[in-house]
Amino acid sequence: MREPSLQLACIVAALVILSWTVVSHRAANRQREAAVVAEMRLGELLRAQNEMQGRVAAMAEVFGARQAETNQGINQRLDGLTQRLGQSISEQTRTTHENLRRLQERLAVIDTAQANIQSLAKDVVGLQAILANKQTRGAFGQARMETIVADGLPIGAYEFQAQLANGVRPDCVIRMPNGQPPLVIDAKFPLEAWNAMGGAGTPEASKAASQQFRRDMEVHIRDISEKYLQPGETQDTAFLFVPSESIFASIHESFEGIVQRAHRARIVIVSPSLLLLSIQVLQALLKDQRMREQAHVIQGEVLRLMEDLGRLDDRVRKLHGHFTSAQKDVDQILTSTEKLARRGARIGEMEFEVLTSQGATAPSPPATERAVESRTGQLKLRVVDED
């Protein structure tokens, strides 16, 4: 039993050794074939590497030339771009300087305007301070009224703060022509309620301010009527001066009752333009009065002028007679000079006759001519007498 098993094991071992040998032989063949293939591939790789190196060299040369051209083009473009940038920067700098100069000019104008605005603001603040103070506001209205009156009327035709018989002093008194009582002008306009009405923020406050303004105006109109309208001493009509055209228009538009009450009290509410117009009318009336007052003086001057004109007429007539007599003498002198001129012309036209050697003479002259022989007896002068 052991020998077959041993034989079988030997056979198996032989088979294994044979298989390993075959496999080893095949592996060696494969290695040789792989080595040959590797050598062939290595040769191909070397050839490819050589070709690649040649191509790389050619490409390096081409790239070098291209890079040189590119560098040259880039340099040229950089030079052009630098020049354009320089010009652009110069132009931009010039434009910037010009804009800065204009900006400085405008800033100077703005500074001047700001200074004017600040001065105007100070003036407005001062005006508000003036209008806030009742006495100062009255002085402001008084100043405007006095300016209008003084510019329109001659000195002596008006008086400011003149005292009446009842002891009150109206703002202005204008003397009327023809011995009429003077006209009174009041410039104390109540402005507190008006300003309150303009500054009211609610309808209730505006209504209350309007009522207060209406009451102040009614009280002021009554005071003017009682104090300044004195029969026989002043006119039965007085002016209430409002120092603003807008306030005057608003009163007539929104407070018709105040205007009617003033008319019934014979108080005329006037604005600066209406006061100026009234002053111009009064100026015309005063001028007409002065003309009538000076009418007798003008008439006397006209009479004396007529007397002087009569004397001048007599003297002119006498001078005309002298000129007529002198003209006659001049005419006679002219007649004599004309005769002398004609005689001189005839003398210049005298004819002379020369005797011939045979004693023959020229034809006999007319009967009106006289022959005058010369001392030599050879020439004859004919003189023609004409009247």
TrEMBL record:
<keyword id="KW-0175">Coiled coil</keyword>
<keyword id="KW-0233">DNA recombination</keyword>
<comment type="function">
    <text>Involved in DNA recombination.</text>
</comment>
<dbReference type="Pfam" id="PF02646">
    <property type="entry name" value="RmuC"/>
</dbReference>
<comment type="similarity">
    <text>Belongs to the RmuC family.</text>
</comment>
<dbReference type="GO" id="GO:0006310">
    <property type="term" value="P:DNA recombination"/>
</dbReference>
<dbReference type="InterPro" id="IPR003798">
    <property type="entry name" value="DNA_recombination_RmuC"/>
</dbReference>
<protein>
    <recommendedName>
        <fullName>DNA recombination protein RmuC homolog</fullName>
    </recommendedName>
</protein>
<feature type="region of interest" description="Disordered">
    <location>
        <begin position="357"/>
        <end position="378"/>
    </location>
</feature>
